[in-house]
Amino acid sequence: MGARLQVERPGTIMKKGMRRQIVLHYILVVFLALLLVEVIFLLAIRTYYYDSVYNSITTHISAAEEFYQKYQLTNENSPFALEELLDSFELSNTELQVLTLDGKMITNSTGFQPDRTITTSDVPEAVGGSIGRWVGRQPGTNENVMAVSKVLQIGGRDAYVLRYLTSVEGINSNLFNVTLLAIGIGGAVMAVVASFSFGLANSIVKPLNNITAVSAQMAKGKFDVRIKGNYRYEIADLASTLNYMAQEIVRSNQIKDDFISSISHELRTPLTSIKGWSETLISGGYDPEETKLGVGIISKESNRLIGLVEELLDFSKLQQNEMRLSMGAVGIKELLQEIVLNVWAKAEKKQIRLVLDAEEGLVVYGDANRLKQVFLNIADNAIKFSHEGSDIMIHAYRLFEDQVEVVVSDTGIGISEEHLARVKDRFFQVDSLNGGTGLGLAISQQIIELHGGLLEMESELGQGTRVRVQLMLADAASGTINTEEKMEGTE
Prior knowledge:
Transmembrane segments: 23-45, 175-201
CATH topology of the domain at 328-490: Heat Shock Protein 90
Subcellular location: Cell membrane
Strand order of the largest sheet: 2-1-5-4-3
CATH class of the domain at 328-490: Alpha Beta
Radius of gyration: 50 Å
Protein name: histidine kinase
Distance between the termini: 36 Å
Keywords: ATP-binding, Cell membrane, Kinase, Membrane, Nucleotide-binding, Phosphoprotein, Transferase, Transmembrane, Transmembrane helix, Two-component regulatory system
Number of helices: 12
Mean pLDDT: 79
Structural class: alpha+beta
EC number: 2.7.13.3
CATH superfamily of the domain at 328-490: Histidine kinase-like ATPase, C-terminal domain
């Protein structure tokens, strides 16, 4: 990781890194969500309190107006009309003002007769036909008040504006207390969230720090170290993957070491024979038969060396995607007959019978030499690991309309399930005592894949092995594969 992540001791600043980002983002998200909830809650509480006062006044107005219109006894122009009006519409703890339609105060329930005009928005709203409402500060006293106004009709015409004025200081005080309580609760929630976010960050960062430390050791070549800990979810997958990587590297190194040891032996043996016979022949004094035998051994061991080197070169080309295929029509039956002739002498030494059963007219699109290399390797392995006097069956038949399958099966020693999963890995050898580089099947696999085919193996220890190779028929392949495309794919 680019920056080591650590929680500092109290009194220090938390270093930048994943832990800090997790904590800050988590707190920020919760803070914004909490702020939104509290704002909505406080607005709802304020609206509820203010609407309760407003609804109480409007309900009183409606009831008083109904009573006043029904039982009004005093004439509108009577000197007692305004007094009766105040008595009929008066509401406790609320100042009632009687205004003209243009907002000039006529009288009020407090007994004071200020000569002033009301200019707040509730009066025009009432004159317009609705119940006016205004919340603000009372001029002079600077007190928070709510005003509710309504036009009173007398005799079918608008006569006065009844304006109720009540203090909302108590409501605002309650709202302030609720706000403080909400802030306190929010602060407590944020403290819990902060503690939880630190725990969450540590649960992520500490395993990552451990994994990073172990990975650094692996990068230095210490592949025997492993990531330990009971991790969960994606971190557990990451730890498992790195442990598996280290295990595979160890295995690959072991295979590489075994390969080097094996190939050194494979190269030394023929070189020793060549060197020995060369020195013997140089000394002279041997009859023609002995000379012929020595030259034959030198030729045989030279061919063996050439085969080993060519196998290594093929593997190198495949690894670097430099192998070029010379594609063309290849008759499967003819190719397999040639394979049988090539390995017949080796099979005869172990008294193994080769049985070929191939359909006529099966033609695939591929590189004849490379396919021959594949089937020679498969047949050679079958002979190598078969019992004396056993049979090796080679079948070739049309699998689908566009595919042919070649099956080579034996009743030899077989391969264990553990080794079967790795038998096509490079450098892997089931039995290193049998010689070879351990590259034959790995090369064969890649050659078949370059042909767009499939190579699969089935085996049971002590029962034998069955190798299946699937290739595309020439008629089907000609439209989708050509030499230029295959060469581009391997360059």
